[in-house]
Amino acid sequence: MNITQTFYDNMANQYDKLFLDWQSTTREQAVILDRIFTEYGFDRTAQVLDCACGIGTQAIGLASLGYRITASDISDGELAEAKERAEKNAVQIHFEHADFCALSDTFSKQFDIVIAMDNALPHMLSGEALKKAVTSIAAQTKPGGIIVASIRDYDSLLVGKPPYSPPYIHKTEKGQRVSFQTWVWKEENYHLTQYIINDEDLLQISKFECEYRATRREELTKLFLAVGCTDVVWKFPEETDFYQPIVVARK
Q1: Residue 222 burial (CB < 10 Å; 0-12/13-18/19+)?
Q2: Farthest-apart Cα atoms in the chain, separation
Q3: Residue 174: what are its φ and ψ, rounded to 5°?
Q4: Number of helical H runs and strand E runs in the chain
């Protein structure tokens, strides 16, 4: 088991604490993605693969809108959490354990849309690993289909290489939850420690560690073009209302 699997397995039952209201977030993000899909000519009959589904934040919201969703992840802990949440939301999603670097090992068919949101691709810790992931994702996308992914704004972050992220402070009926990350840089890679402080009925402090590689937009654009995508467009938060830059690549 690698560090990424361990990170998400350990955090699976607390991941929703990163949000003030996870349920509302699923609906809000689904609306944002639906708007992008519509812009590229797709309706809600589109077959969508969420290849880094986590606890289902995007997959469940999109399924609620009527999209036909297949969802996969490398973390069994997060898949179990996602399945439970899909049942509670009364949506039908086909779940599979899969590594997005080798999607063809799990899936024999291609999809109209493949998504990889919430900074999933920068888990690839080298240029070669990122190329393998992009190649795998593109291979699972139908000709004429689109790939939609989001990453942090590393073009800006690499200028100063900050040692931490600003905290999220969520006031609740029982107190508050605080989450933040510390970052230890080694060139373009960094070690991330995620802290979640749950100060409600009882004080609970949790800590999770992982590794990332700061991926510049130019590198990802070139990789999408190299694997046969004909058009690559970056959309920014001021346009989409999503919290990270989103790339849309047409195959």
Answers
A1: middle
A2: 53
A3: -105, 0
A4: 8, 11
User: For the segment 78-90, what is each residue's pLDDT rounded down to a tens digit?
Assistant: 999 999 999 999 9
Contacts of 101 (CB under 8 A, 6+ apart): 124, 129, 132, 133, 136
- Using alpha carbons only, how large is the chain's radius of gyration in Å? 17
Please state whether the predicted TM-score (pTM) of the whole model is above 0.90: yes
Sheet containing strand 203-213, edge to edge, reads 168-172, 175-186, 189-199, 203-213
Among 247, 217, 184, 214, CA closest to 124? 214
Write the DSSP assignment of 4-48 as a string of letters. HHHHHHHHTTTGGGGSS-HHHHHHHHHHHHHHHHHHTT--TT-EE
Dihedral, CA of residue 234, residue 239, residue 244 and residue 245, to nearest 10: 10
CA 177 from chain center: how many Å? Answer: 22
Residue 172 has pLDDT above 70, yes or no: yes
Q: If you search the block for the tokens 């969520």, which residue do you land on?
A: 170
Cα–chain center distance at 83: 17
The yes-or-no verdict on residue 1 having pLDDT over 90 is no
Q: Backbone phi, then psi, for 50, in 5-degree steps?
A: -95, 100
CA distance 210 to 118: 14
pLDDT digit string, tens, across residues 209-243: 999 999 999 999 999 999 999 999 999 999 999 99
- Token pair of 163 as six digits: 């040692």
β-sheet bridge partners, residue 146: 113, 250
Give the Cα separation of 217 and 121 in Å (integer): 12
Which residue type, as a one-letter code, is found at position 139? A
pLDDT band at 201 (very low <50, low <70, confident <90, very high): confident
